[in-house]
Amino acid sequence: FLNVYTPKVQNGQSFPVLVFIHGGSFTIGSATFDVGGVDLLMENEIIVVTLNYRLDVLGFLRYPKFNISGNYGLKDQHAALKWINRYIAYFGGDSNRVTLMGQSAGASSVGYHLFSDRSTGLFQQAALLSGSLLSSWAYSYRAEFFADVYFNHLGITSRE
C-alpha cells in the first residue's frame, strides 16, 4: 500500500517527510518511484513516502442510482496520511514536518486534500506539480453517464 524510504537514522534524529501521490489520470500509476530520485532525497535527509490508491472504477466510480459515492481513491490517500501521521516517528520522521506532493492527477488529489477538513493537520505544506483540482480533467461532470454505460455493458441493473 505504501513505501517508506529513509536515510540512515541515528538515535533522536527526526527528518522532514515528503509524501508523493502519483499521477496517471486517476486510471494508471503506482507507488513505484524513480530509485535515483529517492536516493537523492535521502542523501538530503528527507524521508520519502509513496502510496498506492484505488484507481479508475474501483477508486472513483460515482453512481447515485446505486448509492455509490465514489472517491475511494481519495479515501485511500487519506488513510495513508493518517497512518503516516501516527507511525512516521518510528521511521525517524517528524509528523509536524510533512509535505504532501502530487504530480498531474496526484496534484489534483493534493488540491482536494488541501480543501478537505478531514485532512487538516495531516500535512503542513503542499506542492502541486502539473495539475490542480481546477484542471478540466480533475472532475468528471459526466460521471453518471459513464457509470450508466459501464453498468449497462456489464448487464447490471441494480445494486443487488
TrEMBL record:
Membrane-spanning residues: none
Uppermost EC category: hydrolase
GO molecular function terms listed in the Swiss-Prot or TrEMBL record: carboxylic ester hydrolase activity
Pfam family, one: COesterase
Enzyme Commission number, as recorded: 3.1.1.-
Keywords carried by this UniProt record: Disulfide bond, Glycoprotein, Hydrolase, Serine esterase
Domain Carboxylesterase type B: 2-155
Cross-referenced InterPro entries: AB_hydrolase_fold, CarbesteraseB, Carboxylesterase_B_AS
Sequence similarity: Belongs to the type-B carboxylesterase/lipase family.
The protein's name: Carboxylic ester hydrolase
Record organism: Culex pipiens (House mosquito)
